[in-house]
Structure formats: structure tokens, C-alpha cells
Design brief:
With 150 residues, this protein is mainly α. The protein has 2 domains: 44 residues; 63 residues, DnaJ domain (Helix Hairpins, Orthogonal Bundle), CATH 1.10.287.110. Helix 3 runs antiparallel to helix 4.
Length: 150
Amino acid sequence: MPKSPLEVFFDKMFEAVEDAAEELVRDASKQAKENMRRMSRQLDQTTKGNQPGNRPGTLPRGQKRAQRPAKPVGRSERPSPVKASLYDVLEVSPKASPETISAAFRSLSTRFHPDTGKVKSESRYKEITAAWTVLKDPERRKKYDREIGI
């Protein structure tokens, strides 16, 4: 029985899809091989100085180490760490209700308590307690919100 025009159409479409998939696989394989070659060349370039006879971290003979710029006087090189807000410490939104803040405190304090918590972290527990101490009092919370610009 001869194939209907629709079956012929679908057979041609299926063959075209198979050809396209094979071409994609060939292209991806070619690209992967090229990436491997490039990465290998980069690795070779970075390890040239570590040839036999050279100590690790030393430069080959004849090369000089670049001079480092002078350190600034009176400044630390690392920026000061950004302090998390008290809301971040309690993992609540700044718009959270007092009940939500208390529930978050109870949950986190039981989790991080140094004596009974699953994760025993005294420093984290102190942060949680300090945050709750400020945020539980409506007046102190308003003052804190003004300080951070909420």
C-alpha cells in the first residue's frame, strides 16, 4: 500500500530532524575538543615555571618578579565586613509583626542554643538574642528602623 502524503511528509521531517541532531552532536564534539586543547595550552603556560630543577613558586632563570605596589599606610587591605541587619539575623522581613519576630527568635534560639541546639553555635545564638532584644521592644525597634532608614 502506498504511503499517504502526510506519512511521506512526516518521514521527511523525521529524517531532517535526525540529520540536524547528528550535526549538532558533531558540532558539540568539535567544540569540546577545541575547548580541551585550549585549556591544555593554558595549563601548560601556567606550569612552565615549575619545570624540574625549579622550586615550586619560583620563576625560571632570567625572569624577575614584578614589584608590588607599596601598601597604603594606616589602612587595612580587606574591606570591613558588611553587618547584617537585625532583621537578617532573625531571618524576617522588616515589615514582620511582633508575633512573627518572636516566633522566629524561638525557632532560631532552639536551633542554635549552645546547650540544647541541633547546631551549637554560641556566637550565632548571641547575635540572635541581641537582635531579638532590640526588635521585641516597639520603641527600640522604631529607633533602629530610623537608624537604618526604614
